[in-house]
User: Fold Trehalose 6-phosphate phosphatase from Rhodoplanes elegans.
Amino acid sequence: MTRADTMTSPADAIDLDEVALLLDIDGTLLDFADTPREVWVPPTLRRTLGGLLARTGGALALVSGRVLADIDLLFAPLELPAIGGHGAELRVAPGERSDPARTPSLDPMVKRKLAGVAELGRGVLIEDKGYSLALHWRLAPDKGVAVTAMVQSICESFPDLPLEAMPGKAVIEVKPAAFDKASAVAELMRLPPFEGRRPVFVGDDVTDERVFPILPPLGGFGFAVGRDIPGTAGSFAGPAAVRAWLDGLLERGA
Ligand SMILES: O=P(O)(O)OC[C@H]1O[C@H](O[C@H]2O[C@H](CO)[C@@H](O)[C@H](O)[C@H]2O)[C@H](O)[C@@H](O)[C@@H]1O
Assistant:
């Protein structure tokens, strides 16, 4: 870990009795894979997350661009509090359902137009998440610029719809502009058992950058993964370092 390496770092000073742990998934907890379906969740990570959930009195949540149904399949049988679909879904406790009326689906006409972007070539993948649609090019890196340009032009062709095209890691995703991870984290932190705790958020992506500035006013702080991000307390080299840190937190706080 950089900056936080000198081990009186904020990363080590965490008191599980007073923090809420908020964890991004892809690129933070999990190593990247060629396609969304190919990621692997180490069994030790499930055990650690389950242990930290108990140890924080339920104040641990995943904060992901993935939808809850997808998150639950990945981490099964573990079910965790989670923000899904970049804030489209919110589950405060295991076993609860996100309110389906919370966020409308992305307009089907927009989805159909976006699906046409896959014609740019083999390896451009469509991921339909209901609330949003993502176009991935990890398998076709040479198509990234063209995919991004087409997606932006399609969004501009719907001037009456409040759409947002969000870039990510070898992906661009179109969703309603009304919500994002930051608005959902702010909402989560107003609800028990998160309310009154200090949010500690770990994330790697462009979409995570909006969360970091809302943490200090809540008494919290953030850590980046794979790079330095201004306004964070430090950074982890990669998901393996994040997982090792979480293991250590549980051991020390048990
Ligand atoms: O907010 P996150 O939990 O970090 O989710 C962000 C996106 O992650 C997934 O896509 C990314 O990971 C894939 C698997 O490693 C990789 O193939 C892809 O290139 C990445 O962009 C997921 O598929 C998206 O729905 C999430 O929004």
Summary: Residues 4-8 have pLDDT under 50 and may be disordered. Residues 24-27, 32-36, 39, 64-66, 127, 134, 136, 138, 168-171, 173, 205, 207 surround L263DTV3 (CB under 6 Å). The chain is about 25% helix and 20% strand.
